[in-house]
Design goal:
Blueprint lengths: L2 H15 L3 H6 L8 H13 L1 H8 L8 H16 L5 H11 L5 H14 L7 H4 L4 H11 L1 H11 L7 E3 L13 E3 L4 E4 L7 H4 L3 E3 L2 H10 L5 E5 L6 H9 L4 E7 L2 H14 L4 E5 L12 E7 L14 H4 L2 H18 L3 E11 L8 H10 L3 E9 L1 H4 L4 E8 L3
Parallel strand pairs: 5-6, 5-8, 6-7, 8-9
Antiparallel strand pairs: 1-3, 1-4, 2-3, 9-11, 10-11
Helix pairs in contact: 1-3, 1-5, 3-5, 4-5, 5-6, 5-7, 6-7, 9-10
Amino acid sequence: MKARLYCLKTLQRVFQEGAYASILLRHADVDKKDIDFVSEIVYGTIRNYQLLEFQWRKYANATNQKNSLLLDMTIYQMFFMDSVPDYAAIHEAVELAKESDKSFINAILRKVQAEGLQSSNDLSIQYSHPKWMIDLWNAHYGEEITQKILEENQKPSRVYGRINTLKCKKEDFDASFYFLNDICFISENNIVKMEKFKEGKIVIQDYHAQMVVDALDVKEDMNVLDLCAAPGTKTQQIAMYMNNKGHIIAGDYLENRLELVNSLMDRCGVEIVETILNDATINHFEEESFDRILMDVPCSGMGDLSHKPEIRYSLKPEDIDNLIAIQEKILDANASALKKGGILVYSTCTLNKKENEKQVEKFLKKNSQFELLEEKTLFPFDDHSDGFYYAKLKRKQS
């Protein structure tokens, strides 16, 4: 399939069906040499959707979604991709349009080209985020931090790798791997295509996600519960820190998600993980049976808007209310399974105090036998990484 046609079809599925671009691009029906080109157009158009619409809506308020997305992706190429000449982008757009729409598409694009890229004082347009989300961040973190979040979300996400010390060590890697610490690295090469990845010697895992597991402070021979484990990268990191000694129960609510966990454990040589089909909002475990519990709970994903830019258009405020209720149930149902003196880490990949600090504060008011040791918000702009929050809680000895 031609590269630009695939871009258009992918964008249609994202905006019409709520599909994730990352999943669609994983199986892209285009030549391998065009993958990077397609990825930039698709992700760039999604990240800048409202700004791109702003460029042409003054000339045509009403048109079908195919034409709208065709205009959006072409304008992205014209103003954001130096490698694509305007004439080529416009020509290809006209070729993709229906015969009856060709003159319309050409005329709109020529007007936009003549006017140049227009900016807006409205942050929701300029940074292509819903106004309610910007207002929430302003209220929770202030305008300066909000501005930095918006700017960071518009950048292409960085892919971080982590070594699996059960199969290799840092010294086994050459200078093409740039290490941030003893286990986390970035590389200019495609990690998924590396033999080390296929052999389970390295995994793809966000830098801030790795810090969440660090807070769990696991040791060999512990009994650990990972409640919402799929796809399993945190589970594998826990097992790695335990040197494959002890026991980890990894739960999730769908069989196909548990299959991802099992597949990763097999590839990475992990032998101490038991996967279970589990509704985390219900307590299935005996009291004081785990040394450590990780609750990486379902959340609104507002820390992950560079990596998954579609979320900003599909997420609604009422969705968050439902998630907050689920998070509270997970905390309340499973906290009693932690041993006295044990550590529980509650985490999300969102930037929203109602799901984060307020959720933990509410839990602590109801559970005086727990104390807060540490809590941290990891903003996307801190390390060009995903936004995360974690709270490290300890169950008191008495």
